[in-house]
Amino acid sequence: MLLTNALRWKLKPASGWRGYALAVGLVAVAAAVRWAAAMWVAVSPNFPVFYPAVLIATLAGGKRAGWLALGLSTATVWWFWLPLLHSLPLDRPQLITAVMFVATAGLMIAVSETARRAYFRALAADERFRLAHEASLDGFVMLEPVRRDGRIVDFRWVHANAAAEAMAPASARPLIGRLMADVFPETGDDDRLRRYVDILKSGKPDKFEFKLTLDGAEHWMSSSGVRIEDAVALTFRDVTAAIEARKSLEARVEERTRALEQTREERAKAEAALAQAQRVETLGRLTGGVAHDFNNILTVIIGGLDMILRGVDKPERVKRLAETALAAGRRGERLTRQLLAFSRHREIKLEVHKAAEIMGQVEPMIRRVSGEMISLTIEVAPNAGSARFDGAQFEAALLNLVVNAAHATPPGGSIKVSASRARVAVGEIEDLKEGRYLKVSVADTGTGIPLEVMRRIFEPFFTTKEIGEGSGLGLAQVQGFARQSGGAVTVESQPGQGATINIYLPAADGPARELTIPPVYVPTQARRVTGETVLLVEDDEGVRTLTESLLEECGYRVLSTENGPEALAILRRGDPIALMLSDVVMPGGMSGVDLAILASRLRPDLPILLATGYAAGRLAELTPANDWPVLRKPFHLEELATAIRDALVAKGKVVA
Known about the structure:
By secondary structure, the chain is of the alpha/beta class. The chain folds into four domains: 2-135, no CATH class; 139-238, 2-Layer Sandwich (Beta-Lactamase), CATH 3.30.450.20; 350-508, Histidine kinase-like ATPase, C-terminal domain (Heat Shock Protein 90); 533-650, 3-Layer(aba) Sandwich (Rossmann fold). The protein is built from 18 helices and 17 strands. The protein has helices at residues 2-7, 17-40, 51-61, 63-81, 92-135, 162-167, 180-183, 192-202, 240-310, 315-343, 355-370, 391-408, 451-454, 474-484, 541-553, 564-573, 592-602, 637-650; strands at 139-148, 151-160, 206-214, 217-228, 231-238, 351-354, 375-380, 386-389, 414-424, 435-444, 488-493, 499-508, 533-537, 557-561, 579-583, 608-612, 630-632. The strands form three sheets. Strands 6, 7, 8, 9, 10, 11 and 12 form a seven-stranded mixed β-sheet that branches. It has a five-stranded antiparallel β-sheet with strand order 2-1-5-4-3, with helices on both faces. The chain has a five-stranded parallel β-sheet with strand order 14-13-15-16-17, with helices on both faces. A hairpin with a 2-residue loop joins strand 1 (139-148) and strand 2. Helix 9 packs antiparallel against helix 10 (315-343). The N and C termini lie far apart (124 Å).
């Protein structure tokens, strides 16, 4: 204790008066001890009693105090107990003893000074460590294991800083000396005890979070632990606020994510509605041209049939008029299919298309929307090749551009639609990669586009047309189509000099999609059958009458009805029926698909053929298990006979 207190006089090497005073005092004490020893022993050693004085002076006051103590000790012994060294010649044994004392004591001073410095450095580090832990906001504890039968059953607190004491329940303070199970009984219900044991056994640090109940309130703690000899050193931090903030943030992120997903769904629906609205708008523009074409078609059909009725006795004339009427009907069929394909709502489908073929397919429709007062020319360069895009979207985009060009072009003007192969360099067109593209251009000789309009030309719902003449969706739909296809749209215009809009679509070298164009119908002799009965279900009386005649011409017996319930009643009677031919869209709540499903349950082996002109989504109800063949209206005799034979063969029926 005396040594420790003496060492605490200074926290760093110094030679102040306290160190020197201590050295003097220690030498005086050693001299007194030497005098006392001389009183009891005749011959007493001179120097050993002064070693402690030099050592203590060095440790407490530094090396200077140690050298002072050494000098005073040597002088004291020299003067009082070595008289033979006061005159010449010197006493050799006593001189050697004095030199050995000075040498060994000097060595002791050097070693002691080194030890002293190390001690005070450790003492300072320990003090800094203690102050840091006492001032720390994190709890710090040391736990020693409590073993029973060689197994660790609990831990005991051997150290805890102020923050750790503050985190403990009020009834459990101070922590030092207490068992963990006594302070936190819920420890046995979580894995903290197991983690502490693992730290002690493996020596690997660990970090984890756990929930703690302090004075009735739940707190989340973040803890990290490490093994120190046979104890576990742990730090604690109350992270309740951080975890609650994190959970709140996660809840907000989840809520925002749901809102974003909902927004995306709404945006997708809005974009689909926008495209569909543009289709309807363009269809409205098509109405006049389509009505004109259908009137021409009906004129041929009605006039031809009227002439046939007036001259049934002239076979050659009847045949010529009938063929003319039939060809006109086929023209109407192709036009109807084009309109249905254009107006149908569906997902984008990227396919390879030949420029020449798809331009030829869309040509009749763009000629109708351009009007008779404007000259329209279509040019497809021999090197145009193929590109990858959605065919229906392309037709809609091209129609939109022609509609806008016709609106901007005065009577007598011209519109030119061209397709060619183009190579785009890096940075030549904004947001377009380098490569080969199909360039489709629509150029007009109209009024041109002013600069202020050019900046907003692709904004949805922006239009320069009068109210009621346009929605402002056309060019936005064109740009959306081009971007979805991996291309871009550019506009070139000068006021008063017309405008040119270019669509760039990625070129493709793969096999192109074959466009199905109905062939010209040439009547042939259909193969006749005998003795087989066909159940015909058709709600339209005119179509039902015509189909009955076609079936009878093919040699079938016909049982006809106008709705599904009556057809099911016939099937339940057990009449022999070779095939059921049903329309898809019928009134009364039972569609042709519904009827086919019920009929298959009644007669699993019954061949079924569905017929439709426009299924209105009903065919989407078909599944691989009920994939019945579909005959598209209008149909002629050979198509009907072939479809029936294929349906019979698919069911394993023998066909003559």
